[in-house]
Design goal:
8% helix, 97 residues, mainly beta, elongated, five-stranded mixed beta sheet, single chain
């Protein structure tokens, strides 16, 4: 693994979570903003190890030179795993024919 500078900024990685980050691939590359998905925390010291990466640049954690977490993105939704029909009947009956 190449040398990495990961600035957690008071956060801890959580599995299957999204973070707004600033990142760079090497010392000679500019820093850019992206969204990072953690995937599974199977890496060294509970770091992202599988199915992770930056969404825009398609770069995995082990290929990053620098990353600073700016904030965690709340990706919870109220109707997770519910059927659309049930949500419409309960919350929007005027739209159901």
């Amino acid at each position: 693994m190449k040398k990495q500078y990961i600035m957690m900024n008071g956060y801890e990685f959580e599995e299957h979570s999204y973070y707004v980050v600033e990142a760079s691939m090497s010392n000679g590359n500019p820093i850019f903003q992206d969204i990072f998905y953690t995937g599974f925390l199977t890496g060294k010291n509970n770091t992202p190890g599988g199915y992770n990466g930056l969404l825009k640049s398609h770069t995995e954690f082990h290929n990053l030179y620098y990353m600073k977490i700016i904030r965690k993105i709340d990706s919870n939704i109220d109707n997770n795993q519910r059927m659309v029909k049930d949500v419409l009947l309960e919350d929007y009956p005027e739209y159901v024919l």
